[in-house]
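Section 5: illustrative case.
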């Protein structure tokens, strides 16, 4: 998608900002442990525009998490091979895509891409106080816990309290 955006910008001579979001199953070459799975559900997105900054990313992440009922999030610097600078928010890893990667796709040097991903299993672990991600999936799942919590909801309002508010100020 970023490559196509870069090629369209070359052909048209005009850069058009864009937003891409996805909810899907992700597969990684990971060693399974208490906090990592080789496959998991992830919400992810990228936002492209000229001269985006880390401040834009932080503002977007604050609104994103507020709509899920998560307030007062804290950011800390972190390493991610695809984004720079990168940070963590409760084990989630947002960042700005590296300029050298974007230029190779044909995007102008002043185009920046905000990127983030959130595995759905980790917030579920936090919600239910689980220490081991394997308690959510597979043969060791506590069926009583599943039956007494048929839907994982981070906030019962699920964003409905924000309906009618301006998305930028919400």
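Designed sequence:
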């Amino acid at each position: 998608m970023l490559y196509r955006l870069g090629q369209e910008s070359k052909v048209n001579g005009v850069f058009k900002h864009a937003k891409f979001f996805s909810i899907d199953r992700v597969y990684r070459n990971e060693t399974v442990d208490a906090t990592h799975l080789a496959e998991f559900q992830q919400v992810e997105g990228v936002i492209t525009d000229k001269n985006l900054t880390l401040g834009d990313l932080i503002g977007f992440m604050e609104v994103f998490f507020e709509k899920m009922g998560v307030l007062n999030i804290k950011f800390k610097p972190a390493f991610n091979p695809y984004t720079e600078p990168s940070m963590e928010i409760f084990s989630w890893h947002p960042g700005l895509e590296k300029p050298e990667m974007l230029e190779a796709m044909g995007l102008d040097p002043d185009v920046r891409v905000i990127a983030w991903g959130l595995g759905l299993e980790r917030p579920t672990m936090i919600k239910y106080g689980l220490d081991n991600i394997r308690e959510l999936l597979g043969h060791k799942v506590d069926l009583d816990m599943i039956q007494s919590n048929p839907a994982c909801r981070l906030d019962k309002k699920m964003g409905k309290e924000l309906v009618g508010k301006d998305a930028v100020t919400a």
